[in-house]
Structure formats: structure tokens, C-alpha cells
Amino acid sequence: MDERPFFERVGSWFKTSVTVKLFVIGFLLLLLMIPVSMVNELINERQYRQREVEAEITRDWGNKQVVRGPLICVPTEHKTFIEDEETGEVSEYVNTNNAFFLPEELRINGTVVPRELNRDIFNVTVYETEIQLSGHFKPLHLDEWEDEHITPRWDKAQIVMGITDLSGVQDDINMNLAGKELSFNPGVSQNLPFQSGVSSPILLSEETGEIDFRTKLELQGSNGLEFAPLGKTT
Predict the structure, then answer these.
(1) Could you say which of 89, 127, 201, 216 has the lowest number of CB atoms within 10 Å?
(2) How many CA atoms lie within 13 A of 202 on its CB side?
(3) Rounded to whole angstroms, what are the CA distances from 156 to 35, 96, 144?
């Protein structure tokens, strides 16, 4: 029989018992998990709020900007004639497509000024940019237009530019095209390579020669600025 005092025996049991050691370790781990969980919750909350602030600011200021063009769009009408085998009647069908002309040369120059906007404890980097686009189109010819069933609609020709976020456009967009000034309107027609942009009707004919152009864009944006190299030489 163990003759040691009670408290000495209890102390010895605590020192040597594997069960007690495991219990103490588990208890300490639980205590440590409480602040870790609180820190993770705070981090997740801050990250969520950061995304909210970024979305609010970019919605007001302008999101990522991708500039495409300019390019010339000429609608074409393609007539198809189908003969009914039973009656011999010939029906005419007209399909409308677009012919696109890219610049022979496209020059892009500009400056980007970054800014930092603050809201609550969060900072969001945005930018302002002024871009000069210039170049020329070669004479507009399309071999397939020699087909008597394809008719180019010169009267509906447009010059278009793709701009992903029109809310970031800071001034009217004008262009000097072949020595004449024209103004762009927001919006583009269907069946274009981009869904958001500006357009302007232009006067063309099959006799139109080389076309020089020059324009300036003043944009605001965030999360990036890109240009599509649509010119044969950019």
C-alpha cells in the first residue's frame, strides 16, 4: 500500500498519467482555437468589405477599360434565289451581313495618371487616361463584292470603336476623319466584334480612297487598361 500523503500521490498521478496530459493538451488547443477563429472571421469580414468597396468605387468611377478600333463597318446585302421544284417559282431571300475594315496603320499614344480613392479604411487604385488614336485606312475594296448578288450599303456605313465601360468616358468623343469632323454616339449595332462602344455614321462610296483619322479619348477606369492591336501596323 502506498504510504505517501494524499496530495503527493495525486500530484504524482497528474505527472505520470497519459490521460491527464492528453486532456490538458486538448484544453490548451481549444483555448488557442478561439483567437484563431476570431482572427479568421475578422480577415474574412475585411476581405468581403474590401470587395464591396472596390465594387462601389469602380461602379462610380469606371471599371477595366479595353479599347478596340476604330474600324469601319459596311453592311452588305446578299441575295439568294431559290426555285421551287414543283411550281417553278423563284423566291428571293436577302441576308444582311457586315464587312469590317481594319486600319492599315494604328498609332496609340497616351498618358495614365493613377489615383488612390479612400473609403472607410480601404484604398482602391484607379486611373485617369488621355489617349490619342491616329492612323489611316487603305482604300475600301472587297473582291467578293464583284458578285452581282452582293450589294454594299454605303449609305449605312459606320465607324465604330469598342469601349468596355462607357461610364468612364469623361468627354465627348470626336474624330477627324478624312479632314472632316464627326461626333460619336454611345452604343453600337448588333453583329459587331464587341458589345459596348461608340459609333458614328459616315459617308463612303466604292470610290473612297485612303482615309486618315485622328481622335482623342479621355477615360477613367480601374483594374487595368488594354488596347486591341487591330491595325495591320500598330
Answers:
(1) 89
(2) 28
(3) 68, 12, 19
Distance CA 225, CA 150 (A): 39
184 vs 95: which has the higher pLDDT: 184
Structural domain of 117: 63-228
What the block records as the C-alpha cell of 129 is 487616361
Contact 220, 62 (CB under 8 A): yes
Residue pair 216/224 in contact by the 8 Å Cβ criterion: no
Residue type, 227: F
CB 84 within 8 A of CB 91: yes
CA angle 218, 219, 223 (to 5 degrees): 155
Lowest-pLDDT range of 76-85, 138-147, 188-197, 215-224: 138-147
Q: How many domains does the chain have?
A: 2
Per the domain annotation, does 233 fall within a domain? Answer: no
